[in-house]
Design goal:
two-stranded antiparallel ribbon, mainly beta
Length: 81
Amino acid sequence: MESPTIADRRPSVLTIEPGTYYWCRCGKSKTQPYCDGSHAGTSFEPMEFKIDQKKQVALCLCKHTNASPFCDGSHRNLPKT
């Protein structure tokens, strides 16, 4: 299995409106944290998630969270580069 690209080592904290969103799993999207189709040719697919009411969220950018698409602090345990 391929490893995702680490887009950043901190979450994207956003206030988002109700709706359906597609979170980038591959880490290659130029519109992080959302998918832009850059996963084409890889084994990755975007993750659909829904928000029912306007709220602040922390979306994972390291792509190693166990709470996709939300940050769970996994970026703190990644090896330093």
